[in-house]
Each structure stands twice: as C-alpha cells, then as structure tokens.
Design brief:
The complex is a heterodimer.
Chain A: H1 3-15, H2 21-38, H3 43-48, E1 53-58, H4 61-79, E2 82-87, H5 91-99, E3 108-112, H6 115-122, H7 142-151, E4 158-171, H8 177-183, E5 197-200, H9 203-213, H10 224-237, E6 238-242, H11 245-253, E7 259-263, H12 264-272, E8 277-280, E9 286-294, H13 300-310, H14 313-323, H15 338-341, H16 360-378
Parallel strand pairs in A: 1-2, 1-3, 5-6
Antiparallel strand pairs in A: 3-9, 4-7, 4-8, 4-9
Helix pairs in contact in A: 4-14, 9-10, 9-16
Chain B: H1 3-35, E1 39-40, E2 46-47, H2 53-60, H3 62-95, H4 101-109, H5 116-127, H6 132-139, H7 153-177, H8 181-189, H9 194-222, H10 226-231, H11 239-249, H12 253-277, H13 281-287
Antiparallel strand pairs in B: 1-2
Helix pairs in contact in B: 1-12, 3-7, 3-9, 5-7, 7-9, 8-9, 9-12, 11-12
Classes of the chains: A alpha/beta, B mainly alpha.
Chain lengths: 381, 288
C-alpha cells in the first residue's frame, strides 16, 4: 500500500466519523514530522511491498531524455510503478547527495561501471541483486559483467548498461582531421590554440590525458611531476573547463572552443544536429562503461524489475539510439541495428578488448591526493 | 497582566523566530563545527574525533589564504561598482515627483522574478563568441574577430553586479527617501548650490543606506558559488568553490566544514565591524 492510499484511507475514516479531528490532524502532523526526520514515515513497509515509485538519477540532457522516453514511461505503463528521475552534473556531486541521504531515498543511478562501483561498495551503499529476477542479464557482454562481479566478490549491485569513450572532439572549421591525427592528445597543450581549448574539469580525465601527453601509461604513471606540468600547461591554454555534457556541447557548437576531449555520445549528438565536429579516439584513449546501480535500502524487487525491463533488447536499443552510446548488449547474441553499430566506440566483437579503462583500484587509491592536487593546479597553483 | 507574564511576553512572541533560527541555523552550524574536527579516511568515510589537522592545513596553506583574499578583492570591486552604479538610479527614483515612482521601483525589483542562474547564464548569449555583442560589433565593422569577453574575472564581476545591483539600489533608495526635504530647502536657502547641497546634506544622510547596501553586496558576492562556475575561467574560483570541491569532489566533509566556518568567521567579522561603525539597524529600515 502506498502513502497516498494510506492517507486516503485515513481521510475516509475521518470523514465517516471513525477518527476524531484531533486524532486525524495528529496523525497527519506526526507523519509529516517523521517524514522530515527520517524520510517517508511508511518507508519500511513500502520497501517490503511494491512501491508506488522508484527514484532514478542520471546524467541529464539527451541521456535523461532517452531514458525517460524509451525506458521509464513504457515501464510505468506496463507495471504501474512510477520512475521519478533526477539528474546530476557529475558523479562526485551525486555521491555527496547519497552520502547525506537516508537509506532508501535514492534507489537507482546511472554510474561509472568500475570507478563508482568500487566507491559505492566501499562506502556501504551496495545492494545485492537477485539475478533470477533479471533474466535479460544473459544478453549483456560477459566482460562488462565480470569486472563488476569481481569487485563485489561474485554478486552484483549493478548491471552494465552502456559504454563509450572520451576522445578528442574538434571543430573542423579550424582543425583538420589530419592535424588531429598527427598531434593526438598533444593538441590540448598546443599553444597555437590558446584560449580555444576546452576540457572536462574532472581530475581523472585531466590526469589520464596528461599521462598520454607525457607518453606514460595512465594506469601506471611513473612520473607524476611530468603529469602535473602537462596539466599546468593545458590549464594556461584552456578557455574553460566544462562541467557537464550540455556545457561541452554548447562550447563546441558556439565556436567558443575549437578542441577539447569529449564524450563520444555527446559529440555524436552534435554531429547529428548538423555541426561539423570531428571525433577521434587517440591511441591509449579513454574508454568507460556505465551501469545501472541499485542502492542498498531500495525496494529491490521493483528495482530489479526496472533493470530487467531496461535490458530488454528493444528498450536498450531505443535508449542507445537516443543517448548515442552503444548498449551493453552482446552483439554476438543480440541483433543490433545499423544505427547502433554506427555509434562511436561500438565494438562488434563484444569483447571491448580495444578500449582502455580506468584501473579502479589504482585510481581509487590515489583519489584523495590527486583530486586535491588537481583542484589546486586548476586554480593556478 | 501579572508582572511575570509581562516580563515573559517578549520571549513568547520571539519564540517562533528563535526556534526557527535555532533549528535551521544554530544547530546546523554546530554540526558543521563538530564536523570540522573529524578526519576523512582514504575510503571517503569520516572518522569521528577531535583532530586539528584540517584547521592546521587550512590556516597554514597559502593556497586557501590566496583564494580567500582573491574572493574578498572580487567582492570589494563588485561592491564599489554596485555603489557607483546603484546610487544614481536610487537618487533619481527617490527625488522623482513622478506618479510612476512605484513602477520604477517595481522595475528595479523585476530581476528578482527571474532565476539568478538564468540571469547569469544569459550573459553567455550576450558576451559569447557568437553572442549578441560580438555579432553586433562584427556587423558594424568595428572588429574583425570576436572578442574574448567570457570566462575571465571581469565577466565574473559583471555577473555579480548584475545580481547584486537591485540590493544596492533599494538600500540607497530607502535612505534617500527618509531624508527630510526641509533640510535640502534649508541648505539651498542658506546659499548652497545644488552640488553643495548634495555633498553636504544628501550624501552624508544617505551614507547609512549606502553602507547597508555595500555590506549586503559584499557578503553575498563573497559567498557566491555559481557565478564563477558559469562565467569564470580556470583561475577565477572563489572561496565557496573550494567548499564545494572539498565536499563534493574530494568527499572531504571535514575539510569543507573548516572552509565553511572560516568564511563564516571572516564575513561575520566584517558584519561586526559594520555594526560598530554604522549600526545593524539600517537593515531594519530597508527591509521593514
């Protein structure tokens, strides 16, 4: 029974004279007070039954639009469970919100499949999915599932959902395809483009690209001083560190910047909108996977049902076409349409062997020091 | 009414306000203060206890000091620009005999009806490379290439002035409106020119309003977060951005708490100084 029904039943009893005005107002007041203190007053009971709604948080923009249109609305129509969707600009911001919340307040989130998965597990937010309730998990690329399963000791708290790359995005009016291939990540520290370079103001991406610019393996950096120097050089040439996909698209589309690293799906969306923006994955470029993570304390059956629904091939394909990122569906098992196969970063083999991912333990081990140091360098130090 | 009831009556009347302030301001601030002595562990979890390391780091590290000074400098520049540009419209409205005076005041308050973020973002469409200003200058043949007007300190200050100017205008207006017009007539009848009358009578009597507006503009701009994010470049961060990054990016709530308390202390000291020099009662005139 959801809270609305409880309220309606209480109201009916009051109107029929079964509850005095004082008791009625007292109960409403008590529920309001307890809601303020600990979330929904009936949360414990609601979790055990089918809830009226579940909360889903994602990246906003075209990604959220795709989820809303192709996954949430059909899911609500089929099950009656409403999906309340929220957005965040970056994963750190969302984690801070989750950290300050009550268990059950946040349910599902579209997170980084490895880096965030480890962080959420370490902070005690990981649920344990009942895979029997998610038969469509069988359609997912095994390599993507294995990496998550290994982190959480054989169980899963999330299902892989999509993947993509963070490559070089450039405005073809000012930079040719040949130039980008020749210079690679080095173009982000090329003085020729001072004031016309952008970049994501996120420490991991900045360090990854600085490692490539200094000919180092991003997952095993030997000389951090060289990396910090490259970041300083980049900082002095950058017009703006963008903080969301929407801002990235706006800066490129309005000729504010000519080159930046960018998310493959967002650049594809720009290209589809008619902008002459090129996209190039340089050698050692950054790949990533994203998952649908279920928080501990959520109504598990409803969340598993939603996750399973989202993994239905027809739903996952529609979302992929909408958000412009390849789905986690195994192309050797599921027939994927040409539109999906033409998305940037799509791997027809289903092994993802050609992509480079963050080594979660390596990067999480340096998170505290490196993020703090980057924040300083970003501000001129 | 007994003597006891009469004595307690002000407290009864004040109790809703005191309860609100206690629950929504004092207690959360105490939580932040307690948090500032905790430690952040490598996994991101917080370790309760009494540790001074965050305070030592913030107070001894020139990085935080420099950003704080830079924030105070930007706030001071913003306040001066608001004072210079806000006094004129406030004077004009206060001295106007027009029957449209209320409409003019309404126009001053009009920006409050639009979200601050939207107002800030609108500058991108005005000052951007393909924005209105650059397009106009290119079309008029004044420039060949678009000017870089965004993502720098002047853009941040412009955004702050745009946000804070109505606060200044309203404060100065209230102060000017309260001046007894007979004093101006008296100064003129004693031979003062219009300029002398303004300098010797109007300006000194409007200074409390100017000071109140200045304090409001200074405190609000020193605590701003969103303007440098939207209109600033990599080097234009302000102190509130450090708080955000400590808490959100680094997940270091204890460090973020120290930075919050430090900003509170600095701005609190400025308010106390203002109270000594001018008196906090000027705000009551503006908002009452």
């Amino acid at each position: 029974m959801d809270n609305t029904k409880r309220y309606e039943r209480l109201l009916q009893r009051f109107q029929e004279g079964g509850v005095s005005r004082r008791t009625f107002l007292g109960l409403i007041g008590a529920s309001a007070a307890s809601y303020g203190v600990m979330g929904s007053p009936f949360t414990r009971y609601a979790r055990a039954a089918t809830p009226a709604s579940v909360r889903f948080d994602g990246w906003g923009g075209v990604v959220s639009d795709a989820f809303e249109k192709y996954a949430f609305k059909p899911f609500t129509k089929e099950t009656g469970v409403k999906v309340v969707s929220g957005t965040f600009g970056d994963a750190d911001q969302y984690l801070a919100r989750v950290k300050a919340s009550q268990p059950g307040e946040y349910n599902l989130a579209h997170l980084s499949g490895v880096f965030d998965y480890v962080r959420y597990k370490d902070l005690g937010f990981a649920s344990e999915l009942n895979e029997k309730n998610i038969p469509n998990l069988q359609n997912v690329i095994p390599a993507l599932v294995k990496v998550l399963r290994d982190i959480s000791g054989g169980t899963l708290s999330a299902v892989p959902y999509d993947y993509g790359t963070t490559g070089l995005a450039y405005n073809r009016k000012f930079i040719s395809d040949d130039e980008i291939k020749e210079k690679g990540p080095g173009i982000l520290i090329d003085k020729k483009y001072k004031g016309k370079i952008g970049g994501w103001g996120e420490w991991k991406t900045r360090i990854w690209y600085a490692a490539l610019q200094t000919d180092q393996n991003p997952n095993d950096i030997k000389d951090m001083n060289k990396v910090w120097d490259a970041i300083r050089t980049n900082r002095d040439l950058v017009l703006k560190y963008w903080s969301s996909g929407a801002e990235l698209m706006s800066l490129l589309a309005n000729d504010e910047i000519y080159v930046t690293e960018g998310w493959s799906g967002r650049i594809k969306a720009l290209q589809d909108a008619g902008h002459d923006i090129g996209y190039y994955d340089p050698k050692g470029g950054l790949g990533w996977q994203e998952c649908i993570f279920v928080m501990k304390g959520s109504p598990m059956e409803a969340c598993e049902e939603l996750v399973n629904f989202m993994l239905k091939p027809e739903v996952a394909i529609a979302v992929a076409e909408g958000q412009k990122y390849p789905p986690s569906l195994n192309p050797t098992k599921v027939d994927l349409p040409k539109e999906v196969q033409s998305l940037p970063a799509f791997d027809p083999t289903g092994t993802l062997a050609g992509l480079n991912f963050f080594d979660a333990s390596y990067w999480n081990g340096h998170q505290q020091d490196w993020s703090q140091k980057f924040d300083r360098i970003e501000k001129g130090y | 009414m007994t003597e006891r009831t009469a004595r307690l009556r002000p407290w009864y009347l004040l109790s809703p306000a005191l309860a609100t302030i206690t629950f929504l301001l004092v207690i959360p601030t105490c939580f932040i203060l307690v948090y500032s002595f905790w430690l952040r562990t490598a996994t991101g979890a917080d370790q309760a206890g009494f540790y001074l390391s965050n305070w030592k780091e913030v107070l001894s590290d020139p990085f935080y000091r420099d950003i704080l000074f830079s924030t105070l400098r930007i706030a001071a520049i913003t306040t001066v620009i608001c004072a210079l540009t806000g006094y004129l419209p406030a004077y004009f409205i206060a001295m106007s005999e027009s029957r449209h005076k209320s409409l003019m005041l309404l126009l001053v308050m009009l920006p409050f009806w639009i979200s601050y973020i939207i107002r800030t973002m609108s500058w991108i469409n005005i000052l951007g490379t393909t924005g209105a200003l650059n397009t106009l200058l290119i079309d008029l043949g004044i420039i060949d290439q678009p000017l870089s007007l965004l993502y720098n300190e002047p853009a941040v200050i412009l955004g702050l002035v745009n946000f804070l100017l109505p606060f200044m205008v309203l404060n100065v207006y209230v102060s000017l409106e309260a001046i007894d017009r007979n004093l101006l007539d008296a100064s003129r009848s004693l031979g003062a020119s219009e300029l002398q009358s303004f300098r010797e009578v109007t300006l000194p009597l409007s200074l409390p309003g100017l000071a109140a507006g200045g304090l409001l503009c200074f405190v609000l701009s020193a605590g701003t977060y969103i303007t440098p994010v939207i209109l600033g470049g990599p080097r234009n961060a302000m102190f509130a951005n450090l708080v955000f990054e400590a808490i959100i990016t680094q997940l270091n709530w204890p460090l973020g708490s120290v930075l919050s308390i430090l900003l509170l202390i600095v701005l609190g000291a400025i308010v106390i100084l203002y109270n000594r020099l001018v008196g906090i009662g000027q705000f009551a005139k503006t908002f009452g």
